[in-house]
Specification:
Layout lengths: L12 H18 L5 H14 L4 H8 L13 H28 L15 H19 L3 H11 L4 H8 L3 H27 L1
Length: 193
């Protein structure tokens, strides 16, 4: 049987899968991923969970040829989809790295670090109070997701715990951080004005 247009020439699913993961990992590295292999695996996992891309992934990279003929998506459409998902995964990864830089390692409710310098202690207490006050005014979902992130939970763990998908968690983290920063700036500007 001659391979159809857009179909891999080999029906060796393991070799096809390895080539696909290697290609996606290479692309993830070029996109700036710190862990290209994991980014590639995550992109594939999400594609397997998506009902639109599932038939094409199963057809082109599955162990058996599915009954019913070729899927709606050609191989080039599937690869374009995978690269789009990969870009989103890498963007999320970079956003999480940025999140770690923005949040201090200490909890919002922890007391200020006792320092020999009285002025530093006063500034730290004032900063903690502003942050705690602004944090308390966030929506409940934003407070919950940010608290879980500060506790070290990953997006997948938070999603399972809160009963939502990872994209929702990523959105809440992003919006919660943005809103918290806005409220802190507003309160600081109000005190200095």
């Amino acid at each position: 049987m001659c391979p159809q247009a857009g179909q891999p020439s080999s029906r060796d699913p393991i070799a096809n899968y390895r080539r696909l993961v290697a290609a996606l990992a290479s692309r993830a590295a070029r996109l700036g991923s710190r862990d290209p292999e994991s980014a590639a695996q995550e992109a594939l996992r999400r594609s397997l969970e998506n009902r639109k891309s599932q038939p094409a992934v199963a057809y082109y990279f599955g162990e058996e040829s599915p009954a019913g003929g070729p899927p709606e998506w050609q191989l080039d459409q599937l690869l374009a989809w995978l690269h789009g998902v990969l870009q989103f995964v890498v963007r999320e990864e970079r956003s999480r790295v940025g999140f770690h830089r923005e949040l201090p390692a200490v909890s919002i409710s922890e007391p200020a670090d006792a320092s020999p310098n009285v002025l530093d202690g006063m500034i730290q207490r004032e900063t903690s109070a502003i942050m705690a006050n602004c944090f308390a005014t966030l929506d409940r979902d934003h407070r919950n997701v940010l608290t879980l992130r500060m506790d070290g939970l990953k997006y997948g763990e938070i999603a399972r715990r809160m009963g939502v998908n990872e994209n929702t968690v990523a959105t809440w983290v992003s919006r919660g951080m943005r809103e918290l920063g806005r409220r802190i700036r507003k309160q600081v500007d109000g005190r200095n004005g």
